Amino acid sequence: MTDQTADLGEYIAKYHSVFSRKTTSKGQCRIFGMENRPLLKKGQKNRVLLYAGCFNPPHLGHYSILRRAFEASQDINAIAAIVLPVDDDRVQGKCKKIGQSLVLPKSERVRLWRSDAKILPEWWIYDGSTEEWKWLWKDLKVAIKMDGFDLRFTNVLGPDHISRFGSYSGLNWGCYETITSDAGRQSDLVKANGSLFTLPGGFTP
């Protein structure tokens, strides 16, 4: 590394270890793989994909959406992806609403993600609370900006969360950019001829 690049994982490790002593996170997890370490580079927008969800349990469709989104975003400098399983109370609320009895604790949902051999080394499975994430996200952006790097978080949504028939504000999890994919299930954003519909509010996929 030079003064023009920096290891994203080292920034995360610094602030994640601080918050993990105060919250539910174990703080000892591996942040990204040993190979293909995500590097921040000066002079470009460094995008990190943020994929949040219940993942109860994580399955091939979840993996396929993130894999497609990550591989298709290299031209916009997507250097890493962070998977954020939401807190247990949110999963319990969703399951109660839809009448589902299976409710896996976050620790198990995180374990299932991390144990998948297909996970890319540029991906990190976050294990803290969503409240902890808010503070970690803010501190990361400030610290990285102070060192002269441009960091952007881009939200990843499955087609069940973004539809041409639903409302979409364009802002989710603090991200002003969103990527979706039909890799896991069919999307109603795609026309029969392969072109895309415009979302309500003028958003164009």
UniProtKB/TrEMBL annotation:
GO MF annotation terms: catalytic activity
SUPFAM superfamilies registered for this protein in UniProt: Nucleotidylyl transferase
Highest taxon of source: Eukaryota
Domain Cytidyltransferase-like stretches: 50-75
UniProt cross-references to InterPro entries, sorted A to Z: Cyt_trans-like (IPR004821), Rossmann-like_a/b/a_fold (IPR014729)
Protein name: Cytidyltransferase-like domain-containing protein
